[in-house]
Amino acid sequence: MRLKYIRYNSCSDNELQELLQDRAPDQYQEYNKTVLDIIDNVKINGDNAVCQYTEKFDGAIIDSNTLQVTQDEIDSAYTQIDEELVGIIRKAKVRIEAYHTKQKQQSWFDSCETGSIMGQKITPIDVVGVYVPGGKAVYPSSVIMNIIPAKVAGVETITMTTPPDKNGLVNPLTLVAARECGVDAIYKVGGAQAIAALAFGTETIPQVDKIVGPGNIFVALAKKAVYGHVSIDSVAGPSEVLVIADETANAKYVAADLLSQAEHDELASSVLITNSEVLVEAVQKEIERQTDYLSRQTIINKSLDDYGAIILVNNMEEAIYLSNRIAPEHLEICTKEPFMLLPKIKHAGAIFLGAYSPEPLGDYMAGPNHVLPTNGTAKFFSPLSVDDFIKKSSIISFSREALSTLENDIVKFAEAEELTAHANAIKVRFEND
């Protein structure tokens, strides 16, 4: 397997956008009707629809009585997981919690001598639903990354949905991670039907105020469809990594990092931008060598064939320009002086600096959230954070004296907009003066 090789000065600025654009959820509108039909069915038929879809798509027979994971199932999960792995989950939780605690905002007030008080009140969202995917892999890291910032924010109730196996059981590692993070309830349902259940509620699954968590194209489209009825984190596309490297980079490390992203799924994107022709050839050889001993070779080869690329640029300025155009989910800077490039990076979900800061570090243990904007949305979206689980209310309190200093301005402003009732609400307070 050799990645596409592009010399930057022989291609247009839009070539990479064209390479990646069909990975976006918006490119899969043929699934929209199916998703909308599922949502409507769940809204009307509740638990019955959820259970029918679970049997159809997951092969599991469940009913309203077995839809929720029991304490016995959670206790059993702990007996099936190696104690060392439980310890690692706890260590990751501590590191992730410590990072997100620094994001927490406080309410504030500001007053002046004339008697005005203005401020901002921070309030956590009441009920959050966390979607955890199943299928191709088990993602306890996703459980931690979605639940911890909600807990730090002070969310009162956190419910989780995840697809069961054919026996109607949830993966034990997922259950252990959820319990360690303090989830309140877990339901055995996946896909668009899970998003519908969280958005509108069923007899068993309570309605939530916000839905977070990654999923397949059906989950992404369902989240998009219910947005407005509830809040969502984002409509995430497939994962991606962009590596900027110079002649000092270790080809073995760079290849390993590209492969680690490619194994996510066939739509994952792995791109290297470098100014070193020597590195280009060395990375190509390492990709071939390392792929031979990896377990997900079919997925890796498909991902690299469709959405992998190596771009040779003339200098680091061109590399940074392309990176900011792409706005990658994960950006690795493997250069002699990575911190020298950092101020020039404008758009990236997460930035990994140096040879010993590989993307999987961020996936599991570093501390920052691994739920990141994809498909160029890092130009206007941020990583999942405590901010996603709070609401801000403006505080306004004026004395008569303070209002009088703005009386004429407000009246004139309102009358300019021909909103005479607005103007009147100010005038009546001073009509006896």
UniProtKB/TrEMBL annotation:
Pathway(s) where this gene product acts: Amino-acid biosynthesis; L-histidine biosynthesis; L-histidine from 5-phospho-alpha-D-ribose 1-diphosphate: step 9/9
EC number, as in UniProt: 1.1.1.23
Keywords from the named record: Amino-acid biosynthesis, Histidine biosynthesis, Metal-binding, NAD, Oxidoreductase, Zinc
Cofactor binding note from Swiss-Prot or TrEMBL: Binds 1 zinc ion per subunit.
Keyword Heme among UniProt keywords: no
Residues reported in the UniProt entry to bind NAD(+): Y131, Q193, N216
Repeat listed as a keyword: no
GO cellular component: cytosol
Catalytic residues in the record: E329 (proton acceptor), H330 (proton acceptor)
Catalytic function, reaction form: L-histidinol + 2 NAD(+) + H2O = L-histidine + 2 NADH + 3 H(+)
Positions of substrate binding: S239, Q261, H264, H330, D363, E417, H422
Gene Ontology BP annotations: L-histidine biosynthetic process
Described purpose of this protein according to its UniProt entry: Catalyzes the sequential NAD-dependent oxidations of L-histidinol to L-histidinaldehyde and then to L-histidine.
Similarity section: Belongs to the histidinol dehydrogenase family.
Name under which the protein is recorded: Histidinol dehydrogenase
Gene coding for it: hisD
